[in-house]
Sequence to fold (594 residues):
Amino acid sequence: MIAILDFGGQYAHLIATRLRSFGVYTNNFDCDVSVDQLKNVQGIVLSGGPQSVFAEDALTMDSRIFELGVPVLAICFGHQLTSQMLGGVVSKGQKGEYGPAQLELLTDSDLFKSVAKTSRVWMSHFDEVTKVPTGFEVSASTSDCKIAAMEDKSRKIYGIQFHPEVIHSKEGTKILGNFVDICKQRNTWDLGSFIDDQCKLIQEKVADKKVFLLVSGGVDSSVAFALLEKALGEERVFGVFMDNGLLRYKEREKVQSSMKKAGFDNLHTEVCQDYFLDNLSNQFEPEAKRKIIGNSFLEVQKQIVARLDLNPEKWLLGQGTIYPDTIESGGTKNSHLIKTHHNRVPEIQKLIDAGKVIEPLADLYKDEVREVGRKLGLSNDMVDRHPFPGPGLGVRILCSDFTGNGVLSETKVHDLDVQILSIKSVGVQGDERTYKHPAVIYEQEQKLDWDNLDQISVKLVNESDQVNRVVYCLSHKSKQSFKAKESYVTKDRIIKLQKADLIAQEILHDYEQVENPETKVWQFPVVLLPLVTSAGDECIVLRPIWSQEAMTAEFARLPQVVLKKMSDEILKIDGIGAVFFDLTHKPPGTIEWE
Ligand code: XMP
Fold:
């Protein structure tokens, strides 16, 4: 087994998933695990984490772990901690490094066997190692981080500042595979038994009870539904689809027909649009909205239980929660809250603590859930749908409690005009939640040179502590005088966003059908901002991304003609006055805007 010590990094579980793909069994431990529990492991990975080693209550671990004599791979915070514990120097960073960077290898290293001399890696850090401990050498650098990798060859201790576990580190998987080889663990374990193991666990946990499952028609809840039915039989699983009014255009009809086609006959529909909208009126703060939506789901579920006269003692609540939902909700011991997913609000947390919730997919990532769905016989149409968040348009409709200037400041980068907007949205930097401003780039002659825009976007965020996102203005070529506008989740705004979303999704679908691009868009939020043009019309953001498991993402470089078509069509909607394209990776942005 390879042990992963979790310092609260957003990607600690992702490391496990990547290592498992090499056929090695892994287990995640809190970083304060006793050294005795690690006596029989063949390798140890130290994860990243949201803290600085300089924090007063900085996390640490038992230093005897370095004396176990097994290979150690220390990532990001783990790399800094290793340096500090073994006598090197860590310094507070000057500006931080988020998103892509070029890694250059400096020495021959087993960890970098067959890895290209220069390659793109993914960074998310502020502090950095500035002197290696005795016995270590520097094995790789980037332009902003001289000690991007270090190693003690004789003790097989490797420290790396970047994240090999995210797909955007081009050689990351190879590096992790090399570590598995250094530990001599390749092909010692197999994932195929997941479904059988889970069925047994579900039967044990549910015992003689039944399961009440909220089904959204998305990938996770559909796969959870199929898995629960396989384990318990149709009679013991009661699926409810709630139309809460925060769904895409005609989503209710689509889900009803696709679930029928997939052979689910026990799915019930509950229409509760007004209830959700009433609860959301006058709310603008993203976390407050999430909590209200999460609680509303639970309240409606309780109403159904009461109406059908079901004995609550005899029922468990089933959820299609997957791992990123838990980790981003601050659900592992040392991780930070990035956002509260609808299935992790305090009311549900109480039920979880009382043992009344069953979540058979809670340890998996989206790509693994899709694989399980296919193994259970669900159609590709169903398992390949883009993810859609439980709180739906409730988060994608950004709200504001004030009216005022929409632009905080203006500047120029590489000859392009840039405005920093006064509205804010959630992002994730260095494993922590941020709530900062977006910057807008204008281009007189719209060329959409992606490499250049990518660089500008990374530079703007890395160099400004005000900005966590960068968008490109598709609809105007020169600066606009935007106003922030007091606005909430209302029927009008939902309809407006549904129209824009439908246009964008249909144009994307047609483009992917016809051109069959090598990398398909993984998810495509379309967002409505509380920002208006001088004519009083609202602004839309297009946020297509490429990802594999939602923990990290790149903005999707769609062809200019496709984006132009989307923007032109969306501008025809009454009350829409500007269309932006999001140029932000995750980190520093999140996939959703809220
Ligand atoms: P972010 O925006 O954090 O999102 O990059 C990561 C993934 O999670 C989805 N998401 C949710 N899914 N309930 C869900 O089931 C939620 O409350 C929720 N919030 C975000 C998001 O769409 C993306 O795929």
